[in-house]
């Protein structure tokens, strides 16, 4: 079923929720990214799910609507605002709730008055929200995130988790929607599955413009990772303010769940979009919704999915007490490919002063400082993930590339049974082809998550070589977050086409997740050859040799190309003896590579700050 067919079904169940009321001090708009305030009156909006009459267990004729509680809570009376009550919640005087129904435009869209029935916690999902907050954010970020999710200043962990998933049940008594199609329930899900959210970003501004807007994405991860029943979904989907409360549909136009408010990590720009599974909602609302509409959302493992099959091929790597990244399992003997910057961060420590305003993350550091830190003596641990269990192993450093490529190789000290090496594809991917980034971005060892999957396309393939036919860098539009370094970019067959190296940053330091760079498998052929029997490490020496073209590519500099006419290759026409920028920079990198190869860490005793280590992205 294509997207137009899914949208045609989904729009029957999508509505806009508008809540407005007196707000003399303008306080009720706090914690809401979009609102409307005028003459002492605040208006908030969100999206909602209109349910067929078959969901209603009451004998009273009415239509039920579900939405997020966060849009209602600012207008609750004080006795209901901070604590759930057994009695029906009350709104402050002058507050009102309206619902905008467009459907499939069979009638004239208009606002309908609605009534609040109750607020409901989702105990199946709320503990996992709290777990994410505790483990995803550091102590300072926790307080920031908590205050953004709460209208009150409570620090009760249970209350915080409840507020993150609490929903509101509304009713339309003046009209019932008998002609709604049957709402089919999705019963199984897997990473990489299609998701379609339909709602109204900025709906209060102009419903006719924003109602039934769609956002398409994919399942990135789920929790608990080893349970057959899923309590919380993480979606690789971009939603604007006002989309919270939107119904989320999967393939075959089956409802998967409802969008709730995302978790945002201030400073890094990272955002985790959360979906409450439909089964968790219906289970918590049995007093109001028919139990016959409940279908458990399960991990879908049969038939096997190419992305799910790579779970055991992507490892979690930790250095010392806190730093983590991803790695790719190369063979059955525990050989793992990851990034060199994980093991030698001093080579990537600070931006070069000439690149403050670029989006690249190019780092230089003084050689004297590098000498003090080049000795690597920290403990390296690797977690191998199976579907139902995790195995932690110590690892040794086998190889760290001194050339332009940001790669390193580890070897497990203890080799678990039934390892599942990655399958590499050395062909050059087509621009526009679908890809999956699989790794441990954002969620480290404390979260106990399996690798997450983000979906995008190949945006650019940068090539080198005499004929310009050797892939040197791949750019994709899939989201890459901190911790995803060393992960794999997979094609639709689940085969690895490149190794994740970095994403880009704004000049102010904010990460750009959807612009990222990776090393094509074609450039990693020596690594693959070495992994076959691991006997001849000299195979890897080719990667350590200076390479002007590769250095220029990974420094985001234009390559040195011959100019037509009598001018020499490194000279601009009409300006004898003046070197081009790209050529000069490439020579600088090459010279420093040769210096690293031949000199020992103690050679430069004079502390000459003009000597730099090569940069990496």
TrEMBL record:
Q: Provide the protein name.
A: Glyoxysomal processing protease, glyoxysomal
Kindly list the GO molecular function terms attached to this UniProt entry.
serine-type endopeptidase activity
| GO CC aspect terms | peroxisome
Q: Which family does it belong to?
A: Belongs to the peptidase S1C family.
Instruction: Name its GO BP terms in alphabetical order.
Output: protein processing
Instruction: Name the source's superkingdom.
Output: Eukaryota
Region of interest (Disordered), residue spans: 559-580, 598-617
- List the Pfam families hit by this protein, alphabetically: Trypsin_2 (PF13365)
* High-level lineage: Eukaryota, Viridiplantae, Streptophyta, Embryophyta, Tracheophyta
